[in-house]
Structures are given as C-alpha cells and as structure tokens.
Task: structure prediction
Amino acid sequence: MKKQNTIIVALAVLAAVCAAFWLLLVAPGYSGNAINMTRGVTEQSQLNYDLHMTVLWICVVIGILVFSAMFLSIVLHRKSKGYKPAKFTHSTKAEMVWSIIPVFILIVIAVPATRALIVMEVTPETEMTIKITAFQWRWKYEYLDDGIEFISSLAESSNAARRLDSGIDPATVENYLLDVDHRLVLPAETKIKFLITADDVLHSWWVPALGWKRDAVPGFINEGWAEIQEPGIYRGQCAELCGRDHGFMPIVLEVLPPEQFRQWVEQQQQKNIVEDADMERLWTREDLMVRGESVYLAQCSTCHQDDGSGLAPAFPALAGSAVATGPLAEHISLVLNGKSGTAMQAFGALLSESDVAAVLTYTRNAFGNETGDVVQPQAIVRTKNG
Amino acid sequence: MGSEKTLAHSDHTVAEHDEHHDHKPKGFLDRWLYTTNHKDIGTLYLIFSLVMFLTGGLMAMVIRAELFMPGLQLVEPDFFNQMTTMHALIMVFGAVMPAWVGFANWMIPMMIGAPDMALPRMNNWSFWILPFAFTMLLSTLLMDSGGPASGWTLYPPLSLQGGQSFAFVVFSVHMMGISSIMGSINVIATIVNMRAPGMTLLRMPLFVWTWLITAFLLIAVMPVLAGAVTMLLTDHFFGTSFFNAAGGGDPVMFQHIFWFFGHPEVYIMILPAFGVVSEIIPTFSRKPLFGYAAMVYATASIAFLSFIVWAHHMFSVGMPLAGELFFMYATMLIAIPTGVKVFNWVSTMWRGSMTFETPMLFAIGFVVLFTIGGLSGLMLAMASVDLQYHDSYFVVAHFHYVLVPGSVFALMAGTYYWLPKWTGHMYSERWGKIHFWLSAIFVNVLFFPQHYLGLAGMPRRIPDYSVQFADFNMISSIGGFAFGATQLIFVGVIIHCIYKSRQVAASRVWEGARGLEWTLSSPPPYHSFNVPPPINSSTVAHADEYSH
Result:
C-alpha cells in the first residue's frame, strides 16, 4: 500500500476510536442523567473529582493509542489483503520503552493521589464532633458537643412504596429511597469531625458530596472529617451490604448557614426538655398506643410486618407470640438488649424510654394480643438502671 | 451429556486417523465415574462449568430483572441478596475456575508431550468432589434459613446472622478448596515431571506457563480461605470470637484474611486467560508471539504482586495512612506488567497476516475489553478516589469487565480454538461469529452503563434504587437479558459441533497454529503421547530461540 494511503487509513482508525470513546464517555451525558462523579462541596470531594478526571483522561489517551494501533493493524495486516507476515519476535528497545513510560505515568498519578489521600486521612483541628452509629437499618446521630441525638430512618413515603408489589409508583414519591424522617443538620463552613461506628454488622456511611465513605465497624470507631462549603441538602446511602434492608437506609444532610444551625440546636435542646418531662410523667393507655403505633411502623414493621405477622423464618410473628403475650420483664429485656445472632437489635441504645414504653404497650395490645399491660416510661428507666 | 454417542463417534474418527491403540473403558460408569483419563476428566470439568455458568447466569437474570425498574416487583430483598451471593460464588468457584481446570486437563499433557496427567486418580477425585460441593451449596436455597445472603465475601458479622444453612456453605467452600488444591498439585506435578525431553521450561506454551503460576497461587491461597471460613464456622456455631469485637475479636481481620486469598483469586481466574489469548493471537496473526520471555516474566510479576495488594479492597475500613499508601503504590505497579502483556499482544498482531475466525474475534474482544477493565482498575487504585468508587456500581462494572469479557471471553475463545481438536469436527463458523458479535455488543450494553451508575452514586448490592438511576439500570438489564440469551447460541454451537457437524477437522486445525497439540490427530488418541514427541522448531509453540 502506498504510504499516503496508509496515513489516511491511520487517521480514519484514530478518528473512529476517538468517536467510540466519545460515544461511551460523553454522549450519554446528553440524556440528562448524571454519568459522572459529583464535584461535591468539600475540599476532599474536589480533590477527588480532579484526580478522577485527570486519571480518566490519561486512561482515555492510553486507550486511544493502544486501540488505534491495534485496529490499524487489523485493517492493514490481513491475510485477505495478501499481507505477508513479518518474522520479528521481540524488540528490546520497544519493550524498554513501554515498561519505562508507564512508570513515569504512574509517578505523575501517584503525586496528586498521595496529596489527596493525606488531606483525606489527616483530620485537622475540628470545631464540632458528630458520632454516627449504624444499626440495621437506620442511623443514629449524636451531636457530642450539644447533647442532641436522634435516629434517622427511611422516610415513611418511601417505606410504603418500596414494599414488594406496593402498587405505588416510585416516580410519584419525592426523593424515593433517598429521604429520611430526621435529617442530619450540619453547619456550613465549619470543620466537623465524624466518629463512625456500628452496633450490629458492617455498614458504610457515604455522602458523595462530601467526597468519601467510611465503614462503620462494630466495636471500632472510624474517623472522617468535612468542611462543607455550601448550605444545601445532600443525599447518600449505606454503601456496605448490611442485610435485608441495606438498600433502604439513606443519609440526608441538611447543611445550614452557621447562625441558622445555632437556632436549630437551641430548638432541639428545647425538645429534649419536653422529652425528659415525657419520661417523668404518667401516660394514658391511649397516648401510649398512638405513639407506640408510630414507633412500631418506623422501627419494627420492616421485619415483623405492619400486622405483626412477621416474615418466616428469620422474623418471628408478634401476633400471639410467646414473648409479646408472656411475662413483661422478658419482653422489656428483649427489646432493650436485642437477641444476639439475629437481626433483633438492642433498641435500648436506639429509642428513648418513652418510645420503648409506647411500643411495648402497643405490641402487647395490638394484633389480637390482649395482655392489657400498660408500660410506663419510668418502668423502662428502672429496668435500664437495673 | 449423551457421552455414548460421542464415544461411538470419536472411536470412528480415531480409527481412521490414528495409529495408537485405544483403551477407552466401555461402560458409561467406567468411562466417566471411574475415569482417570485427562481428556475425559477435562470434558467433565468443562460440562460442569458450562452447567454452572448457565445456573449462575439465571441468577444474574433474576438480579437484572428486579433491577429493571425502581420499586420491588419480583423478589424480596433477602432473596435478592441470596441471588447476588450465589451468583458470585457459583460463577467464581463453579464456572470460571473449573473451566480453567478443564482446559488444563485437556491441553497441558498435549502441549508438553505427555501421555496423561501425573496423578490420574487424584484427578478423578478432584473433579468428582465438585458436583457434591455445588449440590450442597445450591441446596441451601431450599432450606428454612435460606442461602447465604451476605455477599460472596461472607463478611462477618452479617454472614454470622445466617441460620443453620451457613454450615453447608462453609463445608461446600472447603470441598471446592480441596478440589482446587488437588487440581493444582496435579498441574504442577505434570508440568514439572512429564514434559517431553527437550521441552525446557522456556519452550513451554504460554498457556502451560500461566497455569503453572496459577497452580502455585491456588496452593498458596485456598488454605487461607479455608481457614477464614472455618473461623466463621466456629464463631457461628461454637461461640468463638475471632471476628466478634465484643469477645475481643475484629471483624476487619476477616477482610484481611479473605482478601489475602481474594486478590490472588482474581488472578487465578485471569492468568490462564492470558495464556489462552497468547496462544490464539499468534495463530491467527501467522506470526510468533511477541516477547515470549517478557510474557512469562510479566505473568510471574503479576502473581507476585497479587500477594501484596489485598488491602486495596478495603481502603474504607479505616487503615493507617501509611498502610493505605503502601497498598495504593503496590496496586499501581500492577499496571506495568499488565501493560507489557497488552502491548505484546498488539505487537504480535502488528504486521502479521491476520484472519478473523471466531477464536481470534473473542481474543481481540478480550484484549480491548479487558484493557478497559484494567484502566478502570488503575483509577480504583487511587486510595482517596476509591473512597468514592468503593462499593458502588463503578466497582461492579470494573470487575465484570475483567471477568466477563476478560476471563469468560478467553474461555470462549479457547473453546472455539480447541473444540475442533477435541471433537474432530469443525464448529459452525457462521454461528460462532454471530455468538461473538452479539456477546461483544450486549456485554457492553450490560456493563458500560454501570460505570455511570456508580459514579452518580448508586451503591452495589441493593435490590431497589432511586428513580434517578432508572434509565441506565433499564439499559443494563436489557443488555443483560440479551447477553444471557446469546449464550444459548454458544451451547447450540457446541452441541452441533459434537453431534451434527460433518466437517472433519484436520490435525493442524488452523493454518497458523504451532505447538505439539496440533501434531496429534483430531480428536487426539485416548492417551495423548505414548512416545515422547521430538521437540524442534516445528513442534514448539513459541519460544524465542526457535522462532528466528
């Protein structure tokens, strides 16, 4: 083949390979779907985004060169065109070149990768600390400096729609599977330390906008940090398989300007006072049943089902169960301490005394259970204090 | 499969083409259950792995069907988790690994000039363990407490929440491990002791080399896996606390042990693929393999590195900075020997005289798509960005690229390459090509969009997802169904080739094929080389000293 023709073929192959990469990496973005990593709102997320894009383009260039050479060979060096095979079996020079050039490319990548990792892993002096405890299948957030704590579970609207054959179109549910009942409220422009652990199995706390995820390991505390630059709502999910409802424990951050965050903290502390008073007073049976039902639906019904029928074999029925209709002390103990080796967790760490009292009253008097027991928050306090 | 018919047929062709005496046992049980013949055992391995490939594939269809659109339509989340777990265990231990052992059994004696494998009775045993191991594993799906649902990695404490059926999972993993270790011992003993005089190590075909290294990896790591699952067993049933923090144990320690097995394991699945592709590309390029010695050293380097990169699967568990840096740098180094391999394949093709029969098409598909998986692997190596990628669909896309159009395409390439040799008939080239093109298209429709899903924030192993992920999940599922259906063509081509094809295969099936296996008749005699064959430039597949 004439040299000129070869060059034309080479350029055509190069163009075709570039077009293929464009089709794979750029074109799908026009569908309006997100196809790339978020830039996020922290220093780490931006470092990671830049690193991701740098290495992606390095990979694309390598891919274009290698695949172009290969397809050029496929076009030119065919038996059907009468091409006679060459005899060479190695070339020390070429082999040296393609062993050494990658070393330099790796060094070019390793430098910013090391820098980003150091930013990620070395927590600077922080201004506040959030302790995150993962449970099957909800998150507990504790504001260690402000005495606030709460449980964050999948929002009721998503929870209803996500049941098998629920008949609810997920498209009609706002932020389907990415919405919670209580958001983690955080201040912007504040260095926050996150202490992450788990109560039962492994979980992983992942908000892409922060630029990282961190595993929650029972018995161990991991650390992460963030300084969120923009107020807003940021959503994430549990990233480590944690059992049946792994797909249903989202994370929602509500990031406020610092002064609004302080107001929120004060409101929460007011609520704590009300909750403390709730714990002291005597409740009526009706109040306990109403509160108990809402606690049950949020915390218990994914396993034991809305009607207390359970899901054999892993999740026993509560309707008519030996525990829910048996001695009260054992029932309280089971709910507070959980049952090891099963998904029944220690709710003593998860729920307030009032909530435990309410849900016990509810389960002992609903689904056809007729114990007539009324459990007061003070009874739970006494049990907890031994 | 109806082996009597195969037997009758192959007897016929052997009688025509081969002067050796045949000693095939006559009864069905004698031939297959008591067999000590490397080819029959190879066939059993290959049929078994094909059945497992289709079984694991069906589970993948359940997964993709549930993920076709948001909301739960077909299965409960717990069953979904059982499907993802079983799909992986079956594809890794039941489909890909036994398939490579099947290739090793069939090809290694024929490629090194031996009559059979070195340890034929152990060979029989190492195969016949497998159907029992997988029956036991699959039977857990029918038990009260269900199949394993904690992912194939079996991370505690979640895996310990499984019920009584967990013991069956552990024992089936033990049996698979015993089978793999015996298979590896056999491969090593055969390669070390049974090479024909003159078949020096650096004259061995690359497939034999890659299997030799793979066998050492297997012997090194399968006992580690056995130890890890045994500790799970005692934690679950006997109250020990290896992985229970409340008892002084550490759940993360399991991950270190598991991935010390797990990372070499991924090379166990890919190194023989490198070997097969290194046989096929020279054949259809009609040109010797470029840089034979470099290929051997690159394989050994990859195997060595596989032992010191395990914690790159665990960047998010909370390791010290120094540890993360070490595992990041070590992982990045893998790019160098892997790059050497890819460049050498392209250089082998360069200025060759290529034709594009089905094995070559699959080999080229392998080079392109495995390279894409390798490049995303380089991205994943960066520890800080991995804290975004980790446990997302980006990772799912990455390892499926290296395993499906990687290992599985190489298995298919090898099957098309040697099927005429095995059966004595040509397969249907037309249907082989249709199988390739549909597979190559749909495997990308299936897995490429998963990169976008992961980058956009979709975690892996979830049965349901936010509506923002709906479009690409639907595309991926469509690709999945089409890819699954396409594999039925593969089954059809094989059955046609064995029973229906009337086109007789020559000894040297492919014009450019080199190596000892092509000096035997097609199909080869029952005992491959009763007399050591002469080793010279016309019988060596590709060794530098003979190729000038």
Q: What stands out?
A: The CA atoms of residues 315 and 321 of chain B lie 10 Å apart. Chain B touches chain A through 107 residues (CB under 8 Å). Confidence is low (pLDDT under 50) at residues 1-20 of chain B. The longest helix of chain B spans residues 77-112.
